[in-house]
Amino acid sequence: MPHRANKLVTLWQMSVSIRDIELLAPAKDYLSAVDAVDCGADAVYIGAGRFGARYAATNSVEDIAKVVEYAHRFGVKVYVTLNTLLFDNELAAAKAQAEELVAVGVDALIVQDMAYCRMGLKTALHASTQSACSTVEQVQFFEQVGFARAILERNLSGEQIAQIAGQTDVEIEAFIHGAICVCHSGRCYLSRSMSSRSGNRGECSQPCRLPYDLTDGKGRTYIKGKHLLSVCDLDLSERIGQMLDAGVTSFKIEGRLKDRVYLRNIVSHYRRLLDSHIAQRDDCRRASAGVSTVKFEPNPAKSFTRGGSIYLFDGKCAGVASFDTPKALGERIGRVVKVAGGRFLIDSDAEIATGDGVCFITNGEAVGTNINAVTGRWITPNRIEGIVVGTEIFRNYDRLFSLAVERNTIRRAIETKITVEFSEQSIEAIATDSTGISATIHLDCITEEAKNREKMESVVREQMSKSGQTIFDVTKVEILSVRFVPSSVLAQCRRELLEKLEKARVAAHLAPKAFAENVDAQYYKTKAECYDNITNALARNFYLDHGVKEVDEGIDIQPSTAGCRVMVTDYCIRREIGQCLLKNPTIKGELFLERGRKRYKLTFDCKACQMSLIDTI
Question: Same domain for 261 and 239?
Fold first, then answer.
C-alpha cells in the first residue's frame, strides 16, 4: 500500500481506542437468520416485504420480529434492506413499512433512496452500496448528513478503502465474500435497458452474466459468444488483516438468495478467520457474544463460487473474469486421462463420492452431470457426452460435505459464571455472563446442614452447571457457602436464574441512535444528474435543501435508456484481454458489445481507468 494510505491508516488508528468488529451475514428468511446467528454472525441483514434489492428474498414484519427476538439475546444486530428506489406513489407505503420495522426493534435500515431521510424514522440509517459509496466526498456527505454507516462499493481497492476510512468517522462496511456486481452499485441500468426489470427496483435480470459478442460495430467480431461481463466471485479470506488495518468495521458476506448449507459454511469460515485476527489485536473486539460449536470443517471451495478472487482489492488487474461460464465450476478435482465404457479416469486421488455433482467446459460452455459410481480413479457419470481426454473436471456439489453441514447441530452459547450462597431459609445465586451482564435470584426455601459437605458441593456444581437448551454455557460455579437442599430445588433455582439472565441480556441491547438529518450538510455537487437516481419528490427536495441547484430525473423514471450510460465499472474488457489502450493494443478503434438486437458502445476513461457501456440500440 502506498505511503499516503499507510499514513491514513496510522492516523485513523490513533483516533480510536477499541473497535467492535462485526461479521455481517445475509439471511433469506427466519431459518437462515437463525443459522447465521448460530454459526457466529455478529449481525444479519434481511429483506422486508417490499422495497428490497432482492425481489425473491422477502419477509413479513412478523418474521423479522422473530429474527430480532432471536438475535438480540446474543447481542446480534438485525438490519433490514430497503435499498430500492421509490416512486412518488410508493412513499406512503414505504414509510408505513419502515415504521413497522422500527417498532419491532430492528437496529438499522439499509437504504438507497434519500426519501427515507425525510420520513422521521426513529432508527439508524445505513447508506447502501447502491447509493454509490465509492468516493471520500460521497461518504463524507453521508456522514455529515447523519448516516450511521456507509456500505462501500465492491470495485474499490484496499488503498481506496483506507482513504475513505481515513477521512471519515462513519462506520465502514465492506464486502468480503460472494458475487460481485461488475458495475458500480446503483449505477447499473443494463437490466432496465433490456426489459422493464430494473436492478434499482430489486428486479435485476442479471444481464451481466449473459454471453456477448465483442465487435467493432461494422461487421468484424473479435470475440464471439463469451460472458464478457461476468466476473469471478469475491473471496477476501487472505485480506482480512489488511481490511482491519484499513478501517473496516463490518465484514459483509453476500448471498441473501443462497441456501442454508452455503450460509453455514461461509459464516463459520469467516468467524474463525475474524476471531483469529481479533485475538492478535488490542484495538479490536468482537461485536456480539457467544461461542459457536461447529462440527464440520468450513471450506469456501465447497459452496457456490464462480472461482474465488480478490477482484480489484490489490489494484486493477486482468484475470478477474470468467468468460466461459457464469455458473459455479467449483473445486478442481483432476484432468481426464482416459475415457472408456461410459466412464473416465482422472489423474488425481480426489475423494469423489456417488451423488457428487461435477462440471466441465465443452464447446466453450459449462456442462454439469452427477456421479453414478466411483471405482478408484474411475468415475462413471450420468452423462459422458463432452468428456474427452484432457478435460478438466470440477466438483460443484460435494454430497458428503453438504450432508455433514445439513445434519450438524450447531449451538451458540455464552460463557457464564454462577455464584451460589446458602442460608438457613434461602438460596441466593448470581449469574454473570462473559460480557458482564448479570442476574440475581433469591429463592426462599428451608435448607439443612449438609452431612457430607464435599458431596453436597459436588451436587450443587453438577446441578448449576446444567445449561440445557438455554443460550448459556455455565463454565464455572462458585460456592460461597453450602447447605443441603434437594436437587429439584437447585434445578428450579438454575432455570429461573438463567431465564432472568436471558431477559437481562435482551434488556441490555442498546437501541440504535435514530437518524437526525443535519440540514447544514452540503452535497459535493451542485447538479444531480440522471445517474444520481432521484425518482421522487422527497429525494428531490432532500438534494435541493443540501445545496444542489439542478436535479435531473433518474433513469428509472425515464421511458428509455437509449443513448444513456447503462454501466460504469472499474473492470475493463480491454485490460482483461490484453488490449489496454495504454499498452499499444492491436485492436484499435471503437468497440461494442452485441447480443441479439442490443448493442452497447464501450467507452474507456484511461485517466480514471474505468469502462462504460452506452446503450445505442
Answer: yes
Residues 373 and 387 in one domain: yes
Q: CB burial class (10 A; 0-12, 13-18, 19+) of residue 135?
A: middle
Nearest in space to 81 (alpha carbons), one of 206, 266, 257: 257
Q: Does residue 545 sit within a domain?
A: no
Residues 191, 259 share a domain: no
Same domain, 117 and 162: yes
User: Which residues have CB under 8 Å from 302's CB, separation 6+?
Assistant: 265, 331, 398, 401, 402
E-state strands within 250-312: 250-253, 284-286, 291-293, 308-309
- Could you tell me if 122 and 146 are in contact, meaning their C-beta atoms sit under 8 angstroms apart? no
In a domain, 133, yes or no: yes
* Domains contained in the chain, number: 4
Classify strands 233-235 and 365-375 as parallel, antiparallel or unpaired. Answer: unpaired
Compute the distance between CA of residue 599 and CA of residue 614 in angstroms, rounded to an integer. Answer: 8
The upper half-sphere exposure of residue 286, i.e. CA atoms within 13 Å in the direction of its Cβ, equals 24
CA atoms within 13 A on the CB side of 485: 28
Contact 253, 266 (CB under 8 A): yes
Backbone angles phi, psi at 23, to 5 degrees: -95, 115
CATH number of the CATH domain containing 333: 2.40.10.170
Indicate the residue among 357, 380, 407 that finishes a domain. 407
pLDDT of residue 12: 43
- Choose the final residue of a domain: 361, 377, 407: 407
**The domain containing residue 401 runs over which residues?**
327-407
91-103 and 61-72 helices, crossing angle to 10°: 30
d(CA 371, CA 358) in angstroms, rounded, equals 7
318 belongs to a structural domain:
no
The predicted model scores a pTM of 0.94
Query: Could you tell me where the DSSP H helices lie in 42-195?
Result: 61-72, 91-103, 136-145, 158-166, 190-194
Q: What's the CATH number where 94 sits?
A: 3.20.20.70
- Weakly modelled stretches of the chain, pLDDT under 50: 1-14
Give the three-class secondary structure for 222. Answer: strand
Could you give the angle at which helices 136-145 and 158-166 cross, rounded to 10 degrees?
40
| SS3 state at 477 | strand
Q: Same domain for 479 and 343?
A: no
DSSP letters spanning 566-604: EEEES--HHHHTT--TTS--SS-S-EEEEETTEEEEEEE
Let me know: does 425 contact 447? Beta carbons within 8 Å: yes
Contact present, 246 and 9 (Cβ < 8 Å): yes
DSSP bridge pairs for 370: 357
Q: How many angstroms separate the CA atoms of 225 and 103, rounded?
A: 51
Residue 380 lies in a domain: yes
Cα angle at 47 between 43 and 50, to 5 degrees? 155
- In this structure, the answer to whether residues 195 and 159 fall within a common structural domain is no
Cα of 33 vs its chain's centroid, Å? 12
Whole-number pLDDT of residue 1: 39
Are 371 and 236 within one domain? Answer: no
Tell me the CA end-to-end span of the chain in Å, nearest whole number.
42
Q: DSSP letter for 174, please.
A: E
350 lies in the same domain as 432: no
What integer pLDDT is reported at residue 14 of this predicted model?
47
Distance CA 236, CA 80 (A): 24
